[in-house]
Amino acid sequence: MAKPIRVVVTGAAGQIAYSLLYSIAKGDVFGKDQPIILVLLDIPPMLPVLDGVVMELQDCALPLLMEVIPTDKVEVGFKDIDAAILVGSMPRKEGMERKDLLKANVAIFKTQGAALDKFAKKTVKVVVVGNPANTNCLIASKSAPSIPKENFSCLTRLDHNRASSQVAMRCGVSADKVKNVIIWGNHSSTQYPDVHHAKVDVNGSEKAAYDAVKDEAWLRGDFISTVQLRGAAVIKARKLSSAMSAAKAICDHVRDIWFGTKEGEFISMGVYAAGNSYGIPEDLIYSFPIEIKNKTWKMVGGLPINDFSRAKMDATAAELVEERDTAMDFLSQ
Ligand code: NAD
Ligand code: LMR
């Protein structure tokens, strides 16, 4: 049997974690032969809840789960960690914008970034889910200077899955028949879901998404706004933010980091923009089309960008620049 890997989930007493932990522990993410030590980090008042989560994980009787370690201490939580899934933060409530949460989250992700820097393996893969995910990820990365920036990413896979599913439903095909949608930019309502490079398999014949959908007005209108506003729509309906779909997207994201993306396919994730990618300003965590091999991601370059897309890619970049600048002010306080 392989040596166990150590995986930490923060916000482990929360609702996303409740959907996520079982999938990780039963091998859906790191493979069916990979033993796991699962570290559950939350804040002190949630320790009694974590005890319940630990009991349930034990009661699942999962062969890959070697140990479960509940803790409220970052030095325990991030010790020798191979994969860190940073879910814990304050979820947005109905009517609240992500920016309202920026200040509290800068403090959380600064502390956790510094702890990763000090205690985690230098090869650790860090995935930020807690909102505002892109900027939290940037702050965590800046606070962990000894860990390569490429090891940090933020979750836009939920938006990616939402976009694929909308197109699939419109074409009357299953979701796996749609590939290469792109989410550009921020995991917020300014994100740009782009299907100019997407393909749909309709009855065994691969078509460009625009040809398969045959409704440009929808693709440039309601499709985009539905994906952009989906998180808020779920909150309005459930009075809680997405959890089941978020957990599924985290599994997709981390599994692709571990095992790579399929040949000829790309996915979306927020990664460090170094300033030479599609004209996006540097020093942001921006969602791009990404291919992954050998646990290393590569941006898919050279896709033609029309004026419609350019304007939307720039608008979401502008929001990220503003978020970053505000966050950097909080960081220096
Ligand atoms: P939740 O309130 O159910 O759980 C959050 C948990 O985080 C709580 O148990 C809380 O105690 C814990 N927490 C708070 N501060 C912490 C800290 N400093 N260290 C460790 N744990 C801490 O929320 P949820 O529904 O699980 O959502 C978690 C986050 O994920 C929210 O910010 C939400 O907006 C975000 N989210 C992101 C996406 C995405 O696609 N990127 C999708 C859905 C939700
Ligand atoms: C989502 O996309 O469902 C979450 O990020 C929740 C939100 O605030 O939109």
TrEMBL record:
Free-text function comment from the UniProt entry: Catalyzes the reduction of aromatic alpha-keto acids in the presence of NADH. Plays essential roles in the malate-aspartate shuttle and the tricarboxylic acid cycle, important in mitochondrial NADH supply for oxidative phosphorylation. Catalyzes the reduction of 2-oxoglutarate to 2-hydroxyglutarate, leading to elevated reactive oxygen species (ROS).
UniProt keyword terms in alphabetical order: NAD, Oxidoreductase, Tricarboxylic acid cycle
Sequence positions that bind NAD(+): D42, N105, V129, G130, N131
E.C. designation(s): 1.1.1.37
Domain Lactate/malate dehydrogenase C-terminal: 156-330
Family that this chain belongs to: Belongs to the LDH/MDH superfamily. MDH type 2 family.
Annotated GO biological process: malate metabolic process; tricarboxylic acid cycle
GO molecular function annotations of the record: L-malate dehydrogenase (NAD+) activity
Catalytic activities: (S)-malate + NAD(+) = oxaloacetate + NADH + H(+); (S)-2-hydroxyglutarate + NAD(+) = 2-oxoglutarate + NADH + H(+)
Domain Lactate/malate dehydrogenase N-terminal intervals: 6-152
Official protein name in the record: Malate dehydrogenase
Keyword Oxidoreductase belongs to the record: yes
Gene3D superfamilies according to UniProt: Lactate dehydrogenase/glycoside hydrolase, family 4, C-terminal, NAD(P)-binding Rossmann-like Domain
Active site, renumbered: H187
Binding residues annotated for substrate, in chain numbering: R92, R98, N131, R162
